[in-house]
Amino acid sequence: MPGLFDLLSGDDLYAKLEHDYQRVLDNPADVFTAFDFLITAWHLLEWKYPGDTAKKQRDDLRKRYPILALCEHLAVSGKHFEPTSKKHNSVDTTYRDSVWKRGVWAPGVWQPGVWRDDLIVELTGDAQITFGDKLTIKEIADLVMNFWRGPGGYSNTGRSPGSAI
Description:
- The protein has helices spanning 10-26, 31-48, 55-64, 66-80, 125-131, 137-149, and strands at residues 91-98, 117-123, 134-136.
- By secondary structure, the chain is mostly helical.
- The protein has one domain (10-149).
- Strands 1-2-3 form a three-stranded antiparallel sheet.
- The longest helix has 18 residues, at 31-48.
């Protein structure tokens, strides 16, 4: 089975990443949106550099660009709840930083952004050295998009992706 519905190529998955990024911008406190974005951001690397023959290239890029290692750590944590590989060393913890506890207000009572409600990722390792102690999901999404939109970003030219991120 090639692809999934209309997701048939890396270009299609990149279009999904752009779509998910807009969803993060629209509602950065939505956990489901954050999950979708992170999973797509991480797996785009596999679509750009597919197969066993490109595994070393993917590993090298992950090591070179801390934003990719951070995406992988968050994506694996989201799928499996706790990453077990020692290479996942970008994230200390995640939490919601909100004025109100979840469920205090009925959904839709307040427009997104009226009250502080952020999804926070506390960093460790190279991610902490590169980006600081913590980032919001929106900040992570911005960094991811800078990477994939950067010089040599997502394209089928075979050039290396990203910038100095």
